[in-house]
Specification:
2 helices, 88% helix
Amino acid sequence: MATGPRKTKTAAPAAEAAVEAAAAPVVAEVKKVQVAAQKAAAETAETLENSFTLASKSLQAFSAKAMEAYQANAAASVHYVQALAGVRSVSEAIALQSEHMRKQYETLTAQAKELTALAQQVAADAAGPLKDQLDKAFKTK
C-alpha cells in the first residue's frame, strides 16, 4: 500500500515559530482593539444609564407639574360651578362665565408654556449624555 508524503518533523517547529513570529504583531493589535472595544462598550452603557436616570427625573417633574395643573383646573371648575349655582340673573351668569373662561384661558396658556419647557428639558436630559458620547466617539483626533 502506498502512503502519502511524509512530513518532516524538523521543518514543522521552524515553520510554526515563523508563523507565530509573523502573527505576534497582529495578535497584539487584536488584543489592543478588543480592550478599546470593551472600554467603549462600558462607557456607552454608563452613558445610557445616566441618560435614562436624567430622563426619569425630568419625567417625574413633568408628571408632577401636569398633575398640579390638573388639580388647579379641577378646583377652578368646581369653584365656577359653585359660583354659577348662586347667580340670580342671566346677565350675572354670562358675566361669570366670561370671567371664568378668561381666567382659564390665561391659566391654560401659562400651564402649556410650563409643560412645554419641561418636555424640552426631558428631551434634553435624555439626549444630552448620548450626544456627548457620540461627539466623543466621532471626535477627530
